[in-house]
Design a protein that fits this description.
Rossmann fold; binds 2-keto-D-gluconic acid; 12 strands
């Protein structure tokens, strides 16, 4: 009888991670990388000790209940756990872990790239070149907006928000932030960051907004149509968190009618679907959810996931346990 811990991984992971999983556990990998339909997730949950999903898997109450009995741990590959029904998992006594920290710097780099790319019209310029439409230099052509001296409003000052603030300071941006809890005075001082208790007031006073809060029931459409309308018309909006935090249709409406100057988006409300108008506008730089997509981050995420499984298997408290208050 096989007594090794059975781990089912829902997507293909970098080779060194898969090799390590094979060495340590009785691992069932997904070499084709085809996302598992809901019925397959249910079947997987019922037949493993550890399920290792990613953001593309909807681990709802049905999947979790199917696992009740054998399934002991959901070891997510990724930091966000909004795709997992944490409440049902807690009630079923199934632990959940994630992989925070190791993707912070890479995600912050991508956010900073969008903060630069949208006002400076980088994607538009690259499209012009590719189309062979460069008419030669002109004093008034392709004018964007300066970055230095602008006010950056960070919505969600966790690890990634802070890492963006560090980068943004070097580009001469003024740092403003809104967060449920004010960060420590030492961090505020280091980042030169000004806390706004009132999100609406901050939005009305910033030039570039960066969304970095997690998706929770409280942050669903935090940037609603009403809030987006409070942004100055010259404002740019960047989202590398979760699409659901912004009302995507309202965003497209406001960009289309010029009530907002531009947007840099890496995440969408209904991935992989994207509101088509966002892909047509020159003022939008749209990326395919690639914030943590570096080989270094993805291997580190895999290693973190494996450490969580191993510690759990050995009877220890896994380092990245996601704690859910029971409701
Ligand atoms: C990951 C992310 O690539 O970690 C997260 O929460 O959004 C991404 O950067 C993805 O979640 C992998 O599951």
């Amino acid at each position: 009888m096989n007594t090794r811990t059975k781990v089912i991984v829902t997507r293909r992971l970098p080779e060194p991670v898969q090799d390590r999983l094979n060495t340590l556990f009785d691992a069932r990998l997904n070499l084709s990388d085809k996302p598992m339909p809901h019925a397959e997730l249910i079947e997987a949950a019922a037949n493993c000790d550890v399920l290792a999903p990613t953001v593309t898997d909807h681990i709802d109450d049905k999947v979790i209940r199917a696992g009740a009995g054998r399934l002991k741990l959901i070891a997510n590959f990724g930091a966000g756990t909004d795709h997992i029904d944490l409440d049902t998992a807690a009630k079923a006594g199934i632990a959940v872990t994630n992989t925070p920290g190791v993707l912070t710097e890479d995600t912050a780099d991508l956010a900073m790239a969008l903060i630069l790319a949208v006002p400076r019209r980088l994607a538009e310029g690259a499209r012009v070149m590719r189309a062979g439409d460069f008419p030669g230099w002109s004093p008034t052509w392709m004018m964007g907006h300066s970055i230095g001296g602008k006010k950056l409003g960070i919505v969600g000052m966790g690890r990634i928000g802070q890492a963006i603030a560090r980068r943004a300071r070097a580009f001469g941006l003024e740092i403003h932030y809104h967060n449920r809890n004010r960060v420590s005075a030492a961090i505020e001082e280091e980042l030169g960051a000004l806390w706004w208790d009132d999100l609406d007031a901050m939005l009305a006073n910033t030039d570039i907004i960066s969304v970095n809060c997690p998706k929770t029931p409280q942050t669903h459409h935090l940037l609603s149509r009403d809030r987006l309308s409070k942004l100055p018309h010259h404002a740019f909006l960047v989202n590398t968190s979760r699409g659901d935090v912004i009302d995507e249709i309202a965003l497209a409406d406001l960009l289309e009618n010029g009530s907002l100057a531009g947007a840099g988006l890496d995440v969408y409300e209904r991935e992989p679907e994207v509101e088509p108008r966002l892909l047509m506008l020159d003022s939008v730089v749209a990326l395919p959810h690639m914030g943590s997509s570096t080989i270094e981050a993805r291997i580190a995420m895999g290693e973190k996931m494996i450490i969580n499984i191993k510690e759990f298997e050995d009877g220890h408290r896994p380092p990245d346990r996601v704690i859910q208050e029971l409701t």
